[in-house]
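Quarterly update from the structural biology core.
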Amino acid sequence: MQSMYTVLIIDDEPAAREALEALLAAERYQLEFAVDGLQGLALAAELYPDIILLDVMMPGLDGYEVCSRLREDPILAEVPVVMITALDDKASRLRGIDAGADDFISKPFDKSELRARVRSICRLNRYRLLLEEKIRFQWIIEQSQEGYIVLNKAGKISYANPSAQLYLNLPEDKSDQNFIDVIRQQYRCEPEASWLNWEFQALPMTPNYLVRPETTTAKAFWLQADELGLPQSARQRRVVRLRNVTDAIVNQNEMRRAETMLRHKLITPVSIASMSVGILKKVIVQEPLPVNELVQLVSQADNSLERLIKEMKDVFQYMDAPVLAQPGQQVALLQLESMVASLAKKLNLEKVTVTVASALQEKRLTIAEIVLETILWEILENAKKFHPQQAPQIEVIVTTEAQNPQGIQLQVAMTASPLSPEQIKWAMMPYIQSEKYFTGEKHGMGLGLSLVNTLVWQAGGSARLFNRNDLPGIVVELVLPLADGNR
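Predicted structure, tokenized:
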């Protein structure tokens, strides 16, 4: 059986060491021995024992000097030292106290007294260490930028560190508040499926978010929530960590949106200009063309370069914006058809239709035009990318949201290979990218739609992905909020 406490015995007399070993062996201590002061100091530094039994009268370094050196060591200074001495005069004890001894046992010692003192001092020292550790841990938690919340069995908050109080706007008296009620009053719990059974089971290991959507006066705010897995003995409590991942989410969005913007704004005019110049170079060298055909090629290249300059100006202006969705911006649903047609043309998609319910024709959404364009580009691009022949049939349908009169339902139905449950689970899950080479999608998940979900949640909407029932394919379904005055 493994010992609970480590006892270091420093004594130069073999008989004394054997006697102490015999007396303490029944207590199942881990006993360590040193034959002189120098070896004792070395073992103390190596073992950090719970107690040191130190003989006073030793050759070389005596017990007083060893004790003084222990007290000068910043790590060993708090280790209890009990001096074992045949000296019983007041002056010797005062010298031992000056050296830093915690207690004394006189030779010949009483067996029961020795056992009782060692046992008591070990327990008190272990309690002191645990108390110090608790104080240090509490200080770290109190100073942490991460929020920590302890919940009782009923799901009510019994402790919240200052960061958690800030994130959840908790008053000082917070013991009667239910955690799930508090967060739902201030945040959207996403993905909703992860939080539905919160009261009955722990949060899954997948990223779980609390999202405060963007408003006209504030940017979106993201918290990642994780639940600590406690041992069975501690199941009466639950511990939740809240981590502010707003900057990480924003940085991920910025990288992905820059990639998206550059791709669908710049590639087309560059390709046309390059092709025109390539043809000019070939015909000039090999076979001269009539002047009118040369002018046509030059004009085509010139027009493409002018378009490239215009698109680059748009890109730079867009990248200068501090956030993707500027607070207060809106987009009219009347623009949807032309927006989808423009994106489809750039992607060479031919079978694309758009249907907006007549009651919604004059409505506006509370997101910026560039946000809606980015969302649609991501969906349409992936529809093409993952269709077996890169030629999907796509239907964009906008209807009133039955469960939410303050929003609309936008479905993008596409022909494609059906997805497995695991692919559906991960395809639109926002996450914090940490790989060396940023790819914008989780390796192996099949669809790089995480940006779509991030932008939709940030705008106060929701998104889901499911397989079609009518045809082989999938549907991306978005619920987006209507602007005030349009509801």
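Residues 115 and 160 are 43 Å apart (CA to CA).
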